[in-house]
Amino acid sequence: MRLDVVTLAPEALQPLLTLGVIGRAFQNGIATLHTHNPRDFASDRYHKVDDEPYGGGAGMVLKPEPVFAAVEAIPQLPRRRVLLMSPQGQPLRQADLQRWAGGYDQLVLLCGHYEGFDERIRSLAHEEVSIGDFVLTGGELPAAVVINGVVRLLPGTVGTAASLEEESHSALLLEHPHYTRPAEFRGMAVPEVLRSGDHGAIARWRQEQQRQRTRQRRPDLYARWQSAQQASQQQS
């Protein structure tokens, strides 16, 4: 997969190239990362990329011309999706990462800065993405989150593909608890069922733990899971 990031701080994305399994995915050619700085596309001698907002107000606004020029200079693959990192976007979900990883050959991620960006920049994007109800100084960290989440789903990145199917949010439920040796640590024991060797009982215990944990910690997610289960039952 080709990943293109339009950013005023390309150095913020460089750690991804050496970060564990994600870094190895880039090194092995599973994905490629390209950064594009709007300053390189500014037409004035000062490489100005921001200006005062019409109507007044605090802060500076990212100008449309350099961003449009940067995006238009990026080579286009047939299956391309342009994402705008924005606190006004739709909350990022695991299903989005799965959809992008499986449905596209290229993702273009637009990172804002300053007080915001000229409204016309929104027209470049197919989707607006938010990683939470808070504001950061730029879109680079959200872009890194998306890249990390997508690349780890690409075939060949993670050694055991089955582990991707059982993790939190893959089926709207949080992941079940995990334990390893020793069997008892500071008075905290591994549940007996996990030491029983009864794989059927272990599977049932894990499924029940997923439901309980999701219901307790993320009732909103649990409600979505229940609705999905009901819809599935009605279809069958």
Structure description:
- The chain has about 240 residues and is an alpha/beta fold.
- The chain has two domains: about 1-150, Alpha/beta knot, CATH 3.40.1280.10; about 165-235, Orthogonal Bundle (Trp Operon Repressor, Chain A), CATH 1.10.1270.
- The protein is built from seven helices and ten strands.
- It has a five-stranded parallel β-sheet. A three-stranded mixed β-sheet has the order 3-4-7, with no helix packed on it.
- The longest helix is centred in the C-terminal third of the chain and has 19 residues, at about 200-215.
Summarize the helices and strands and which ones pair or pack:
Layout: E1 2-6, H1 20-27, E2 32-36, E3 50-51, E4 61-62, H2 64-72, E5 80-91, H3 94-103, E6 106-111, E7 116-117, E8 127-130, H4 140-151, H5 162-165, E9 184-185, E10 188-189, H6 199-217, H7 219-235
Parallel strand pairs: 1-2, 1-6, 4-7, 5-6, 5-8
Antiparallel strand pairs: 3-4, 9-10
Helix pairs in contact: 3-4, 6-7
